[in-house]
């Protein structure tokens, strides 16, 4: 969990850096950068201090905008690709720059930002402590992940690859700003005048939504660590409504790292934060899959048959598959630095690994804890019943048809 707090801590200023890069689409005056970032940070704190209801309602609004935008961009990209833009030019799949080395390195380098884009999906489980009917609602939310990945990620990547060349200079302007949205570039290239500004505006709300989620998640992670005596007790301080306001402020303070873009090129800062957050996310995935495998085999070792709500038709093979590949991706995180050496990029790409090992070993030595054998894992204590969490409807799922349908989904 300490690693996950570190992950969200680096992701918060990353999203703020992305926000500033998109603001520069309209205002390129660097003197205004601190003003935009400060306003963004204040809004972030206020929204998180209003409580989980405000957080949830705001995320519904932002998510609706993102869904409408994603669908519109995919359709619009296809229209442009088929010659429906103002220039009536048909654009079909433009591949990477010539050269086997360039293509291979381009694929490897693309893994890092792609992995970061997927990181954090599992953080939805953190809302279980404050959600109504968590066993029902969290499971329903997670079951939609695969469909969101296929439609919003894979479809978007295919469409972008059809309309924007990989060597377009606007994708990344070293020393100026982080990458613009490829969809914005696509519509600009097609001669569409107004739509790029609308896209950029919605993308700004997306960056705010992501940073808002990371502040919320980081505060709950820190609160949970404090409750378990793994962080200072002050972080358990709550308002009368149960809001862990001290933990919220602690997580929010990471946002001030975004002011680095005021004195440094945002492209450089953006890539630093992407590398830091991606590595932490990889380590988190290894921890999650390892934990699940211990849970799965621990139940079998103790002869416990889990309820259907805790089962997945792809497990434990999905976790084994992930653990096999993630170390490979960790090594690839900063592979481009060996072609064009940069000490700062190397540190940003791999510093998270020794930090995690230091935290893990330090915790084990300080608290003198050990890794329990499977036969001694506790699957009983402090687990609320279905009635206590309001998930009574799960008790009604008794028919074999319902069970089979649930397992297939």
UniProtKB/TrEMBL annotation:
Entry GO MF terms: amino acid transmembrane transporter activity
Parts of the chain that traverse the membrane: 5-23, 35-55, 67-84, 104-124, 145-164, 243-266, 272-297, 318-341, 347-366
Chief localisation class: membrane
The keyword Transmembrane appears for this protein: yes
Record localization: Membrane
Residues of the Amino acid permease/ SLC12A domain: 3-372
InterPro entries per the UniProt record, alphabetical: AA-permease/SLC12A_dom, APC_YAT
Gene Ontology CC annotations of this record: membrane
Membrane topology of this protein: Multi-pass membrane protein
Protein keywords: Amino-acid transport, Membrane, Transmembrane, Transmembrane helix, Transport
Chain coiled-coil ranges: none
Transport is among the record's keywords: yes
PANTHER family assigned to the protein according to its UniProt record, in alphabetical order: AMINO ACID PERMEASE, GENERAL AMINO-ACID PERMEASE GAP1
Name of the protein described by the UniProt record: Amino acid permease/ SLC12A domain-containing protein
Organism: Boletus reticuloceps
Species lineage: Eukaryota, Fungi, Dikarya, Basidiomycota, Agaricomycotina
């Amino acid at each position: 969990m300490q690693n996950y707090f570190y992950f969200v801590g680096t992701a918060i200023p990353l999203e703020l850096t992305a926000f500033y890069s998109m603001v520069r689409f309209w205002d390129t005056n660097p003197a205004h950068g601190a003003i935009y970032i400060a306003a963004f940070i204040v809004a972030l704190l206020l929204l998180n201090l209003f409580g989980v209801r405000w957080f949830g309602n705001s995320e519904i609004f932002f998510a609706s905008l993102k869904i409408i935008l994603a669908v519109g961009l995919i359709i619009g990209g296809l229209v442009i690709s088929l010659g429906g833009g103002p220039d009536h030019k048909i654009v079909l799949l433009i591949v990477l720059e010539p050269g086997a080395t360039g293509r291979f390195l381009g694929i490897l380098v693309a893994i890092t930002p792609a992995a970061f884009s997927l990181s954090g999906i599992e953080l939805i489980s953190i809302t279980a402590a404050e959600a109504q009917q968590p066993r029902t609602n969290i499971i329903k939310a997670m079951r939609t992940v695969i469909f969101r990945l296929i439609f919003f990620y894979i479809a978007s990547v295919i469409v972008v690859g059809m309309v924007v060349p990989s060597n377009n200079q606007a994708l990344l302007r070293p020393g100026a700003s982080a990458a613009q949205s490829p969809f914005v570039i696509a519509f600009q290239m097609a001669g569409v005048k107004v739509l790029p500004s609308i896209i950029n505006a919605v993308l700004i709300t997306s960056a705010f939504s992501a940073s808002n989620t990371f502040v919320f998640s980081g505060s709950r992670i820190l609160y949970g660590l404090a409750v378990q005596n793994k962080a200072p007790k002050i972080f358990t301080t709550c308002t009368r409504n149960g809001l862990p306001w001290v933990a919220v402020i602690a997580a929010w303070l990471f946002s001030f790292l975004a002011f680095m873009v005021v004195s440094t090129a945002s492209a450089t800062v953006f890539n630093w934060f992407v590398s830091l957050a991606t590595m932490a996310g990889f380590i988190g995935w290894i921890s999650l899959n390892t934990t699940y495998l211990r849970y799965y085999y621990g139940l079998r070792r103790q002869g416990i048959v889990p309820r259907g709500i805790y089962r997945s038709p792809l497990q434990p093979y999905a976790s084994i598959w992930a653990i096999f590949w993630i170390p490979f991706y960790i090594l690839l995180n900063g592979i481009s630095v060996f072609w064009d050496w940069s000490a700062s990029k190397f540190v940003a790409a791999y510093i998270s690994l020794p930090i995690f090992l230091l935290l893990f070993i330090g915790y084990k030595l300080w608290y003198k804890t050990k890794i329990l054998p499977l036969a001694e894992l506790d699957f009983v204590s402090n687990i609320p019943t279905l009635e206590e969490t309001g998930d009574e409807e799960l008790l009604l799922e008794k028919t074999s048809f319902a069970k089979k349908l649930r397992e297939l989904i």
